[in-house]
UniProtKB/TrEMBL annotation:
Species whose genome carries this gene: Sphingomonas xinjiangensis
EC number, as in UniProt: 3.1.11.2
Cofactors (names): Mg(2+); Mn(2+)
Pfam families documented for this protein: Exo_endo_phos
UniProt-listed Gene3D superfamilies: Endonuclease/exonuclease/phosphatase (3.60.10.10)
Site, Interaction with DNA substrate: residue positions: H248
Cited CDD domains: ExoIII-like_AP-endo
Annotated GO MF terms: DNA binding; double-stranded DNA 3'-5' DNA exonuclease activity; endonuclease activity; metal ion binding
Top-level EC class: hydrolase
Similarity comment: Belongs to the DNA repair enzymes AP/ExoA family.
Name of the protein in question: Exodeoxyribonuclease-3
InterPro entries membership: AP_endonuc_1, AP_endonuclease_F1_BS, Endo/exonu/phosph_ase_sf, Endo/exonuclease/phosphatase, ExoIII-like
UniProt cofactor note: Probably binds two magnesium or manganese ions per subunit.
Gene Ontology terms: biological process: DNA repair
């Protein structure tokens, strides 16, 4: 079972890229972020014609998350995190697919720091940690997949010294990610590639892709039953080199 996460950076504007990648790689489950489209503008028909059922939570111009399942319809179990009733951002969706509970998330960027956006990021992270605690001990495999907007270690950023003041590399944010892992989650990509410098995002500016000046901010975290089934974890870097592509590349795992 191949489960992927992909920040598409606009699901309609990059629909040809998304459909091409789906056709070429045939993942079983896909978590999408940054749909940048309201619910009624989600391209359900095109996705279904590609062989995928979907659940989604859109938002006009910003945010938006979805879960796609090849050959079936995901069974939605939650949309939005508990803990902040007036939060209008579409950043979390959860569904069961073929015996696996999959959560797709888009953690806030948090810049500029300090400020209200950074405060919101920390609050959202705390809500994620609280909800993840209710999932980690499940007997079924659970996967938390998405754009976390966190580089957990120096190995996850091309020049750590340039990012010390950024919200994606702030000590508070990295500490929150570490606390999440301490609940019993496994960072799939890092578990299988502990010393390898791997990136999932390359900015459009400053020729970042050509220079391989990247960041690893897209992660798949696995609870115990899922981690026991982990076979492969990789990044489809080649997608970042396509025309009119997202600034992120898809990241995926395979579970036995």
């Amino acid at each position: 079972m191949r489960i992927a996460t992909y920040n598409v950076n606009g699901v309609n504007g990059r629909l040809p890229v998304l459909l091409r990648w789906l056709e070429e790689t045939q993942p079983d489950v896909v978590c999408l972020q940054e749909l940048k489209a309201p619910d009624e503008k989600f391209p359900e028909r095109a996705i279904r014609e590609a062989g995928y059922g979907a659940v989604w939570q859109g938002q006009k111009s910003w945010n938006g998350v979805a879960i796609l399942a090849r050959g079936s319809d995901p069974l939605e179990t939650r949309r939005g995190l508990p803990g902040e009733a007036d939060d209008t951002h579409s950043r979390y969706i959860e569904a069961a697919v073929n015996g696996v509970l999959v959560a797709g998330l888009y953690l806030p960027n948090g810049n500029p720091k300090p400020g209200p956006k950074f405060d919101y990021k920390l609050r959202w992270f705390e809500r994620l940690i609280a909800h993840a605690q209710t999932l980690v001990g499940m007997d079924a495999p659970v996967v938390l997949a998405g754009d976390y907007n966190v580089m957990p270690t120096d190995l996850d950023v091309y020049k750590p010294e340039r990012w010390t003041e950024d919200a994606l590399f702030a000590p508070e944010v990295r500490a929150a990610y570490a606390r999440l892992l301490d609940q019993g989650w496994t960072d799939a990509l890092r578990a299988l590639h502990p010393e390898e410098r791997i990136y999932t995002f390359w900015d459009y500016f400053r020729n970042a892709w050509a220079r391989d000046a990247g960041l690893r901010i897209d992660h798949l975290l696995l609870n115990g039953p899922a981690a026991k089934r982990l076979r492969t974890a990789a990044v489809d870097r080649f997608v970042r080199g396509w025309e009119k592509t997202s600034d992120h590349a898809p990241v995926w795992i395979e579970l036995t």
